[in-house]
Amino acid sequence: MQLERLILQGFRNLHGPDGVLQWHPHPRFNLIVGDNGQGKTNLLEAVALLGGLRSFRANKLAECISFSSDQASISAIVAGKAGPRQLGLGLTHGHRRLMVDGKNVTAASAFVGNLAAVVFTTQDLQLPHAEPEARRRWLDRMVFGHQPAHLDELRRYEQALASRNALLRRHALGQLRIDPDMLDVYDGLLARHGALVMQRRFEILSDFAPKLRQAFVQIAAPGLAAEVRYLLKDPQAVDEAGLLQALTDRRSRDLAAGHTTVGPHRDDVGFDLLGRPAHQHASQGQCRALVLACKIAEITSIEATLGEAPLLLLDDVSSELDATRNAALMRLLDELGGQVVVTTTDAKHIAVAAPRQIFRVQSGQFVGDDFEQEEQP
Q: Residue 59's Cα: distance from chain center in Å?
């Protein structure tokens, strides 16, 4: 799967001579080089949105609109096994518009499945030590790459959760006396959609686990065994009936707390090394090797499902790695194949044998005479 062309207008600080940024990336390695704050990460964010409709930086898509505009657009041509597809994403404050091959689509799953992308940022290096929400986001992004319908199901769950929490919050503040029948309705919705969310998470992690073990051996050491587990907030909430019962059992607690205390929005992902929780017993270097292995395993897992390699987006990761682990990452990327877009402040950090092209970014636009010249390290 490859990104052949990207056109941006009104997206963060990115622009071209006429206000529109047009980019034709290299089919293999693309080095986006520039100082901090110039717009390198913005370019990766735009591509990532085409893949998952969720930013790895912003909570709301409207935050991606340029300060000088009231709307933004991202369009691209993507080539895959099914042939070239034209994707379009329009953003305004409070609304988005999705297009595939010139036609409007309403279901997120009809859009997301056209570009599989794996995102790797410096924040991901803290994954074992991060808050559970960060690990859930990582897992859900991986599920999107395998099963685009997960995005619609997750959104349905989140909408029901927001409505239930709004009622609980008003009750806790003494502003509303809740009708138990109304909570029964929301509990049923949460149980139905939440069970599907958890089922997909379980399935993907089951397939992912052996690939993680293999990748970790390549990056770290043969004597270290890495494992990943799905951690339920409530052990009984493993399916629709169990989640419904857990919601019922915790209702009085939820009414007092003003929010829902059980469900896939409260679950977690556990990483273990030699049978012990990585965030408690692993060194910083081992945790970073574990995250590197996660990304490599994510790529191979999606490729096995789709039959083609996903696009890999790396945001200045090399600057956070020591020389040994950076070399291991570059070696594995060479072996994996596929299209890669990587940001860096210095091209010397990206020592790969595969063909590459350097694009220099300054103040939100491509600059210099050399950004169209292919270079070898």
A: 13
Give the model confidence (pLDDT) of 270-295 as tens digits: 999 888 999 998 888 888 889 888 98
Are residues 97 and 131 both part of a single domain? no
Tally of domains in the chain: 2
Q: H or E element: which one contains 104?
A: strand 103-105
Domain at 72, CATH number: 3.40.50.300
**Nearest Cα residue to 160 out of 136, 192, 190, 196:** 190
Contact predicate 167/125, CB 8 Å: no
User: Does 226 fall in a domain?
Assistant: yes
What is the spatial distance between Cα 296 and Cα 337, in angstroms, rounded to a whole number?
A: 11
pLDDT tens-digit readout, 14-62: 999 889 999 999 999 999 999 999 999 999 999 999 988 889 888 889 9
The residue range of the domain holding 80 is: 1-116+310-377
Number of other residues whose CB lies within 10 A of the CB of residue 49: 24
Identify whether 169 is part of a domain: yes
Both 233 and 97 in one domain: the answer is no
- The DSSP string of 239-277 is SHHHHHHHHHHTHHHHHHHTS--SSTTT-EEEEEETTEE
**Sheet strand arrangement including 2-9:** 20-23, 2-9, 71-80, 83-92, 95-100, 103-105
Among 306, 335, 360, the domain boundary falls at 306
Answer left, alpha or beta for residue 12, where phi above 0 means left and psi between -120 and 50 means alpha. left
| Cβ contact 192:184 at 8 Å | no
Residues 154-170 as b or e (16 or more Cβ within 10 Å = b): bebbeebbeebbebbee
Tokens of 347: 């091209």
Domain co-membership, 300 together with 326: no
Other Cβ atoms less than 10 A from the Cβ of 375: the count is 12
- 219 Rama class: left (phi>0) / alpha (psi -120 to 50) / beta: alpha
For the entire predicted model, the pTM comes to: 0.86
Position 171 in a domain = yes
Specify whether the CB–CB gap between 310 and 3 falls below 8 A.
no
Residue with tokens 């509303």: 176
Angle at 314 between CA 309 and CA 12, to 5 degrees: 115
